[in-house]
Structure to design on (830 residues):
């Protein structure tokens, strides 16, 4: 069973809203083993919608439409569908009853003609009661194909999908399952990874597909397995992931929707350890990533962002002679930053960064993108030199990732 | 001129990523007066892409394709386009040179065959140099229609759109002139604004359009004026913006792509003043916003993120009795944080935040979303209480915005 999603309305086409509905629907459909063949956003012009329906019905078994069901003039989906299925509008009493209840009885708002019109539906459809709003969902069938129309308001669409559409589709499909799992890697380039994994990729079973999804500093590897038995699919993917681990053991930091900060958080909690940071070039971005995790106050104590040498000496207690001798971007300075902030904020671990984020400030020996990162642990202080890009935003992101990853690897190898 | 957007790759169809590229591209194209007729997401199957191209070319003059240009096997866009245009792959020397430079000369990473393959392009296309990555953009023309292929990585797509695609399309469209200007407002709701501005909107000249673009905490008002004389269009828009200022004088913080941090930076530079911060609930996000501005070390000295009471007392020198008596989220604590960090980091101005970002930690008197913000100036320390949402991410963003806006208004009114 194959599905297509069609979103209706100008908001998406002029870029006023980002289509978040489709990704949510795609995930839900995939979990039923129904793949999404295409996602299409069209305007509310009747001829445009009709052409999109015609084209999609040639390709897919199920069309899920969202949008264009509001009470105002620019919402024309219901009228178009009524004509498309050669039907006429009839009153759906339970929906009118529900609208009366929602407006008049609960809120004392009089029900006007526009509200009452929402209870009119094409005679040919099955109505899906929308208890999350006023516009009913509509389920049409034509020559063995299913067309469902829902409101575009995410809350109402999700209500109808969860309570009405997905349960019906689950009964109808039952043709095969899909299992997805994504492996998250850090610090490797896409081309390096592709070369390193080439032989292993060649031996992947036919029913397991692999996709490379690159981000700044990060490559996600998505496995998709197709078959009948979800348990077997999961086992087959896990077996391949176990092989993958042998090629790039240190570079895999998590799975699916893990963030690096969440992975580090779990390791800190496991070790009952606390963390603080002293940031120069990352300017508080590491702190932001860590404190974006709910509950971070249990393991994160804070940061000192030392954007001037004065703060490095006055607050972090760095030796001004060391800064003068080696420069602010140096191994000596970054190691002192880590060690001192660890003592100052009384934590088990401390990360420090010092680098040249750009666009200015580079020199021939230390070009833009040069970054020193240090980690102070209860045993020692270690540090590493990186050279990233000439883009300020990316240098900040990559520096923060590399710092957190340095801590992740140390915690992983700590008994 | 009409455009369609086609995104290629399974990530969107399985709901793994939300398509944010299309909304960005639609906004940019609309600003050139090029409407988007349809947005289509297709898989990386060659026949699927070819059918989408055929269908879209019947409707639109410009097709913008993103995705499927990586160095790996699942990236097939280039090969499909080469066949579609009956061309063959040839080496593009400047791209190979750029890849060599990026990998080998700058980072010492050897260039492999997969990298070199990225420099191969269909002979028939014009290459758009991608200085933000390795996969070049490709510009095709066929029977008066334009087809452009770009990487799907948002950073690279935006680089190519801004530097190559949009300037070329602007020259081609030439339907008359358009002048755009966006007014950035903070702290007002869309419905309040729509009601407040209703009469003024009614008197807007026919050739000036107004769009409301809401963000968390922020509404952007975009003016688009259509006509023949750009100078006159600009004057007409500026005249309306002058009227707008009288309705919401304090809420307009900037124009077009201004960030609030950049606006604050300009004001600090004008006053030859320096800033530091002490952050609790914002967890370094204010520091991150400020240090994302190039050259911020000229006016920003740093932050102390005090995520534990211990850091508040040990580093910021807060009186433990005051914390015990009033709680960490209190006017007394946030004012002391601002005043003390100002002294500690020796700055002219200091901002401090303390609040309950959520999801946990709320109480009946101080529910999740409660935030105290203080500003210490050379003359005094002021503070303000806010209640935001129950969403952690939005609370952090809104708190940081509100803090920076507090400083902006004080600097604006400082002689």
């Amino acid at each position: 069973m194959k599905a297509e999603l069609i979103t209706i309305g100008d908001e998406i086409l002029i870029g006023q809203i980002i289509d978040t509905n489709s990704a949510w629907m795609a995930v839900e459909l995939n979990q039923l083993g129904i793949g999404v063949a295409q996602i299409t956003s069209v305007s509310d012009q009747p001829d445009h919608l009709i052409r999109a329906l015609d084209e999609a019905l040639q390709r897919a078994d199920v069309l899920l439409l969202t949008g264009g069901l509001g009470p105002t003039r620019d919402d024309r989906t219901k009228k178009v569908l009524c004509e498309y299925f050669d039907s006429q509008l009839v009153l759906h009493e339970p929906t009118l009853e529900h609208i009366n209840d929602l407006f008049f009885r609960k809120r004392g708002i009089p029900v006007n003609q526009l509200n009452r019109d929402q209870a009119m539906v094409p005679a040919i459809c099955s109505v899906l009661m929308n208890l999350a709003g006023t516009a009913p969902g509509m389920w049409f069938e034509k020559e063995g194909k299913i067309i469902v129309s829902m409101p575009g308001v995410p809350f109402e669409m999700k209500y109808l999908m969860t309570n009405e559409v997905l349960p019906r589709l689950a009964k109808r499909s039952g043709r095969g399952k899909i299992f997805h799992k994504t492996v998250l890697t850090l610090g490797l380039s896409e081309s390096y990874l592709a070369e390193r994994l080439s032989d292993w990729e060649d031996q992947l079973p036919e029913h397991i597909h692999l996709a490379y999804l690159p981000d700044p500093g990060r490559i996600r590897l998505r496995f998709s397995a197709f078959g009948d038995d979800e348990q077997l699919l999961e086992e087959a993917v896990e077996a391949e992931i176990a092989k993958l681990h042998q090629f790039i053991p240190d570079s895999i930091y998590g799975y699916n929707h893990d963030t690096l900060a969440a992975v580090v958080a779990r390791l800190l909690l496991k070790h009952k350890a606390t963390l603080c940071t002293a940031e120069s070039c990352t300017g508080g971005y590491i702190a932001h990533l860590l404190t974006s995790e709910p509950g971070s106050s249990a393991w994160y104590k804070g940061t000192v962002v030392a954007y001037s040498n004065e703060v490095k000496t006055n607050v972090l207690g760095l030796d001004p002679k060391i800064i003068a001798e080696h420069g602010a971007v140096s191994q000596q300075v970054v190691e002192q930053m880590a060690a001192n902030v660890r003592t100052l904020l009384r934590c088990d671990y401390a990360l420090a960064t010092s680098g040249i984020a750009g666009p200015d400030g580079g020199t021939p020996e230390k070009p833009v993108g040069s970054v020193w990162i240090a980690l102070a642990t209860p045993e020692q202080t270690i540090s590493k030199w990186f050279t990233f890009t000439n883009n300020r935003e990316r240098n900040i992101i990559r520096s923060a990732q590399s710092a957190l990853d340095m801590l992740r690897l140390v915690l992983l190898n700590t008994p």
